[in-house]
Amino acid sequence: MQEAVADGRDCGPTFSVVIAAFQAAGTLAEAIDSALAQTLPPTEVIVCDDGSTDGTADIARSYGSAVRLVQRPNGGEAAAKNTATQEATGDFVAVLDADDVYAPRRLEAFAWLARRRPDLDVLVTDAYLTVEGQTVGTAYHEGWRFECADQPREILRRNFVLGLAAVRRRRWLDIGGFDESVRLTTDWDFFIRMLRTGSRVGLVNVPLAEYRLRPGTLSSDRVALVESRIATLQRARARGGLSESELQAVDVAINGQRRELLVRRARASLENKKGGQARRHLLAIARDGGFSPSRRAAALLAAGAPSLAGAWLRARSHGNLELGTGAVLSRREP
């Protein structure tokens, strides 16, 4: 859905930019500068300092009245975003992570879309994905599409909503905001609850932000991420109210994530040189009919020969870039 950005400065909804910041002294100023440089000025820029000790709060204070600083004891990113949203006054809350930046016309694009689609509660644009200053792609592409049709079902398959979204503040508060007990798939859980209770998402298909990704994660973190995805899907199923096609979609997604968990546990065991655990995981892959025959055969061979296990690991160690939502957006792992 390609949309041109039009002039959004006439009457329309208002936007509060909220930035959750923890130990963000090295990146926060650039994020704030990008919010203040919008062609459609935000109603306010709110920085919620989540118990930082590195000067994050001082950077926010240096902007004077242009930035409102809210401070709280460390409670995690979800808690900081909820706190900032409770303080906001705009019609929409535009999320900006402390290590990302907006392009100058991003709020203008949001306003343009909101006026044309007043039924939308969530607004997104595309974004450039960067790693250590290098652009590696865009958030939306052929392998990771924004879904227009049947969004309440499709959000159960995967999180197609970029986290740097503008969310109608009233709806954010109505559903209770982010679940602060969810650590790694907070955004996905949030957007499942929004879309399953009547909200819809719209996209301006132009890259109007820079989403900065870390170059890698520990194997234990990769395992925990998939475990969090499964827990998020199980909670969505347990809430009920799913049609037959939606039940099928969520069950397929859970089974797919369980297979991914087997792979990641095998990789983590191999990386940590835990041969016995690795062999058990590889044998489980070999027995699982959900994997392709070639992958099952490779896992069986790897389980029986340490040298082949190393080759199996290297063949599946291509770089991957993942968002906190748990969505693999580029260089997908096989």
Key traits:
334 residues, Spore Coat Polysaccharide Biosynthesis Protein SpsA, Chain A, 2 domains, two-stranded antiparallel sheet, alpha/beta, 9-stranded mixed sheet, 43% helix
Determine the number of helices (DSSP H or I, runs of at least 4 residues): 12
* The top level CATH class name of the largest domain: Alpha Beta
- Low-confidence segments: 1-8, 318-334
* Class inferred from helices and paired strands: alpha/beta
How many structural domains can be distinguished in the coordinates? 2
Please give the share of residues in helix.
Answer: 40-55%
- State the distance separating the first and last CA atoms: 28 Å
| Average pLDDT taken over every residue | 88
- Using the CA coordinates, give the radius of gyration: 21 Å
Anisotropy-based shape = globular
CATH-derived topology of the largest domain: Spore Coat Polysaccharide Biosynthesis Protein SpsA, Chain A
SS strand fraction: 15-25%
Number of E-state strands: 11
User: What is the CATH-assigned architecture of the largest domain?
Assistant: Alpha-Beta Complex
N-to-C series of helices and strands:
EHEHEHEEHEEHEHHEHHHHHEE
CATH superfamily (homologous) name of the largest domain: Spore Coat Polysaccharide Biosynthesis Protein SpsA, Chain A
**How is the main sheet built?**
9 strands, mixed
